[in-house]
Amino acid sequence: MRFFQKIKNWKTVRGWHIWKLKLVDARLYFVSMIVGLLTGLIAVCYHYLLYFLLHIRSDFFASRPAWYWHILLFLLFWGILMFVSFLVGRMPLISGGGIPQTRGVINGRITYKHPFVELVSKFAGGILSVAAGLSLGREGPSVQIGSYIGSLVSRWTHILQGERKQLLAAGAGAGLAAAFAAPLASSLIVIESIERFDAPKTAITTLLAGVVAGAVAGLVFPVNPYHLIEVSEPVLTFLVRMKYFLLLAVIISIAGKIYSVLMISFKRVYSKVKSPVYIKMFYLVLVAYIISLMQVNLTGGGEQFLLQQAQNGSTEIMWVLAVMLLHFGFSVCSVSSGLPGGNFIPTLVTGGLLGQLVGLVAVKYGIIEPPNITYVMLISMSAFLVAIERTPLTAIVLITEITGHFEVFYPSVVVGGLTYYFTELLQMKSFNVILYEDMINSPDFREENRYTLSVEVMTGSYFDGKAVSELSLPERCVIINVHRDGKNLVPAETSLIPGDQVQIEMDSQDIEKLYEPLVSMANIY
User: In terms of Cα–Cα distance, which of 162, 134, 410 is closest to 289?
Assistant: First the structure.
């Protein structure tokens, strides 16, 4: 009798929807792998073109051409940046790295109205900006390109409204995985910096997409240049090691505070300067060109210069300090311009050079040996990323993944943890969080008073089984629609079941505060 009773229960509306929901989840996971594949293909092309153009650029300056070729190239770079500025003016969402914009789309603050056109513009703008020599990274545009692909695929496959954010997050994570061939770090950045909580479906879709995108990147770039860095762990007593790690964390925290304050201040000031765009771009190209004449690998993000220093670095302390300050100042100018490009790689370069500087000082005083400097550099790269981005898990796992040196994992945890604590004392906010807050507080985002958040009801959640009329929601939050089986139901007459797509309207100023609590009511963690 119990067997027949179970069969009868499966015939109920709830039983059918729970079974159907599992099939819908499987479909979502499959689609997320398609997002990962497409993102990997496009992001790898982005990476390859950057590598190719920067290589040509380096060869040009190394060949020492006649003076008139420099004039022609300078004018070409100036024209390129003018063109990219024009694209940014027409499509403001493609400016900068793209992580704040991606978070805004997932939160419901932003809607990609023309995702394909913006994707192409972000792709072209990012490549041209870095090829012109600006100190920008490839990871931010790769993340936003992934979110554009997630948006397009969700439209093409008619994914449910409540599941679109999962594909956006999956695409964003796949973009980072393709940029660094680091699928695990790609999932962590979505959790720490974009979604900012650990939804199971988001984690699974992001990891699947990241693995696929990372595999594509591994096929195109089988040799990871970071793997060529040789690391020698210093032989120190536990007490000396802990003292050194503590001192390193203090230095990185103070430097990170200075870095963050200057970067944000210059960016805000730059937007208020009334000079014409062509004047701004002229000075930016001029600085980039002068640096290129002195040390071409220090431009274009500076990643090649960092790899050179990690493999066969200088031992001159003052020279390393001067180069680090020069790169930092140039990165401030580049990021402040708002042109397409990320901040991760300039941050890693600054952190690595700071670690080299601290390592050289330690060698001078006999604390460590010269072969141990790269060990300090890798730890410093991770900790500096913690200080600036406030994403400790992403930073630690990213450096471990891209370098393959697990001997720096535990020191990175110690120094990264201390850095996170010290930057809390210094009241530092994540760089991307500050950019996000500046974005949503701009006049363009104050025009709409109400926003709509779409969530999917999961089995066993707070929403599951409850009538809409008996739900206790935060003040001024109203369920305006319930979508089930292709139909829109009247909310007041509906009891929610797993798989329902619920649209919640709220005041625009509350969406960041209420996003996580409302999604938590519909999901299981």
Answer: 134
Q: Give the rounded percent of residues in the chain with a pLDDT score beyond 90.
A: 33
Two tokens, residue 432: 């991307």
pLDDT digits (tens, 9 = 90+) for 219-238: 888 878 888 888 888 888 88
In contact, 205 and 169? CB cutoff 8 Å: yes
Beta bridge partners of 481: 503
Report the C-alpha gap between 514 and 271 in whole angstroms.
30
Structural domains in the chain, CATH included, are 13-220 (1.10.3080.10), 226-439 (1.10.3080.10), 449-522 (3.30.70.1450)
CB 521 within 8 A of CB 478: no
CA distances from 344 to 87, 193, 351, 363, 411 (A): 23, 13, 10, 28, 21
Task: Output the CA–CA distances (angstroms, integers) from residue 211 to 34, 130, 219, in the order listed.
Answer: 11, 27, 12
Using only C-alpha atoms, the chain has a radius of gyration, in whole angstroms, of: 25
pLDDT tens column, 195-228: 655 566 777 788 888 889 888 888 888 878 888 8
pLDDT, the chain, mean = 85
